[in-house]
Amino acid sequence: MQKQSIHDLIEYNGARFSPKVLANEPGYRMVLLCLRAGQSVPEHSTSGKVTVYAVRGHITFYEGDIPCELRTAEVVSVDPGVLHRLEAHEDSVLLVLATGSAAAVAEAIEEIDVRTIPGALRHPLIFAKFDALNVGDSVCLVNDHDPIPLNRQFESLRAGQFSWDYIERGPALFRVRIRRIAKSPGSDVPLSATPAHVQLQAK
C-alpha cells in the first residue's frame, strides 16, 4: 500500500509544464502534471490507454482535432494510438494514468534542452535521438533561438521521415516537436559521418 498527498506534491514551473512520476511499474504509470496558464503538452500518442483526471483548473484536451473542455473533478480517457494534446487556460493540476504494456506507458516525448549542450554536440545528439524513435513518436527540442539550420539539415538528410511543428516560437524560447512519420527506406547516415559541406554549424 502506498499513500501520497497530491496537494503536497503540486509544484509549478514557470518555463514549462512540470511532471512528477508517482508510480512507474510494468504496465502502469501515474504522473502528476502541473501547468501554469498558457502552458501546453504537445501532441503525442501512446500504445496504451491514457486517463486524465483534473485535480484543479481548466484545460482543453484535444483528441486529434476534437476539443474537450476539462475542469476540476472531471475526467477524460483516450484510446491507445490516438494522437492527443492539451492546453491550460488557468493554473491546472492533472493526474495522468497510463496502462498497458511496459512499452505503452513509457514517455512518448523526450525533451532535449540544447541550451545546456555544447554547440558541436547538439545536432549529432538530436539526430541520434530521432533515429532511435519509432514511427509516431517524437522528441521536443528547446532552444533560445529559431533552429532553422537544424531544420535544413533534416530536410537534407531525413527528407520525408519527419514533421516539424513549433510549440512555442520566441522571442526568448523556442520549442519544436520533431516527430518521426516514416522509417528510412535504407540505412540512415549518422550525422557525424556526413560530409563537412553538408553539416551546418550548430548554434
Give the gist of this structure.
This protein is mainly beta and 203 residues long.
Plain-language structure description:
The protein is mainly beta. It has two domains: 6-99, Sandwich (Jelly Rolls); 109-193, Translation Initiation Factor IF3. 13% of the residues lie in helices and 41% in strands. It has three helices and 13 strands; from the N terminus they run H-E-E-E-E-E-E-E-E-E-E-H-E-H-E-E. The protein has helices spanning 6-9, 119-131, 148-157, and strands at residues 18-25, 28-35, 40-44, 49-56, 58-63, 66-71, 75-78, 84-88, 92-99, 109-113, 138-143, 162-169, 174-180. The strands form three sheets. A five-stranded antiparallel sheet has the order 1-2-9-4-7, with no helix packed on it. Strand 1 and strand 2 form a beta hairpin. The longest helix has 13 residues, at 119-131. Residues 102-108 and 193-203 have low confidence and may be disordered.
